Amino acid sequence: MKKKILWFTGMSGTGKSYYSKYISDNYKNYKINMLDGDIIRGRYDIPVGFTYDDICKNNLTIKDIVKKDYQNYDITIISVISPYENIRNQIKREFNKDLSFIYMHSDIESLRQRDTKGLYKKADNKEILNLIGYSDIADSRYERPISPDLILNTSFGINPNENIKKLNKFLKSMLNEI
């Protein structure tokens, strides 16, 4: 059976963890492993800084963790910001057709209003100076993926059921390849 990797990328608060959990909860006929960026830094020895080099090392360490283990699962789901196109391309080359990038997009105003972790408020108050995709620091940029396999827009005004339909259609197509 062909193993698949779904790598959710997007800024904080775009719904990466939510849609990953949706897959895990609704595709129980498949053996699924979920790796969430919010949890993975604490579980593994991964750099916790937010410089460009730290973020790259973090993403490549996650790639190495996935590489060691993904053959044991039908679907491995990664939810991590992964802000740099060059690193995403490196990860894609490593896994080739086994990996699909899902880009979670949301406009900034929706992210600021949603702000489930309070990060955007902290950035606005200058308590966080390097919030990826939001702060003015060069290392904090989020590079929109050039050719993701799927884009889900989670901005306010977008019906979440439409994203679920798009995701299910994508998964059905992907799972037919297994």
Write the layout of secondary structure elements.
Layout: E1 4-9, H1 16-26, E2 32-36, H2 37-43, H3 52-69, E3 75-79, H4 85-95, E4 99-105, H5 108-114, H6 119-124, E5 150-153, H7 160-175
Parallel strand pairs: 1-3, 1-4, 2-3, 4-5
Characterize this entry briefly.
The protein has a single domain (4-175), classed as Rossmann fold (3-Layer(aba) Sandwich), CATH 3.40.50.300. 43% of the residues lie in helices and 15% in strands.
What does this structure look like?
This protein is α/β, with parallel strands linked by helices and 178 residues long. The model has no long low-confidence stretch (mean pLDDT 92). It starts with a strand and ends with a helix. Strands 2-3-1-4-5 form a five-stranded parallel sheet, with helices on both faces. It has seven helices and five strands, in the order E-H-E-H-H-E-H-E-H-H-E-H. The protein has a single domain, classed as P-loop containing nucleotide triphosphate hydrolases (Rossmann fold, 3-Layer(aba) Sandwich).
